[in-house]
Amino acid sequence: MRTFAFASALLFAFAFAPAARAAEGAARPEKAAGLSQAELEKGFEQSLSGSVFRGYFTERGKEQGGLKEEKYTITSVKKIPETDDLWVFNVRIQYGNHDATLPLTLPVKWAGDTPVISLTDMLVPGFGKFTARVVVYRGEYAGTWDGAGHGGHLFGKIEKLDDAKEDDAK
Known about the structure:
Blueprint: H1 4-9, E1 22-23, E2 26-27, H2 37-48, E3 51-57, E4 68-79, E5 86-95, E6 98-111, E7 114-124, E8 128-137, E9 140-147, E10 150-160, H3 161-169
Antiparallel strand pairs: 1-2, 3-4, 3-10, 4-5, 5-6, 6-7, 7-8, 8-9, 9-10
């Protein structure tokens, strides 16, 4: 139940590269200087659609127990027209014994050219309420999560889906 916050936040979630550029198989931003908000949002959509967030999470108070793996496959991301900050993330969430595929409507705020997935006490069907802040920049993500009576940190890299499938096959 824990990192679903990330998937919710994605997650998923999780602020993402402002413009798409392939570099070592990961979503990477172009130079953001001078890009309009519409261009930043288009880059966000392109860089996250068809991507995998592969990383780790911690649980507060259990950090000495080691890192736990997480994986979020994002098939598509699309801004909801006529909204300031709502996006639909079609995502598969995998961690521990959990494996679920669902659409999530998540708010994405912008800190300059950097998107931040920001949810607060959001009810995620089948998982409970979660709060998360996830920043993505230059093919990596990091953030905090809290829900279902526990929380912690999360971080990892973002890969394009085809590159992630090759890594899984190895």
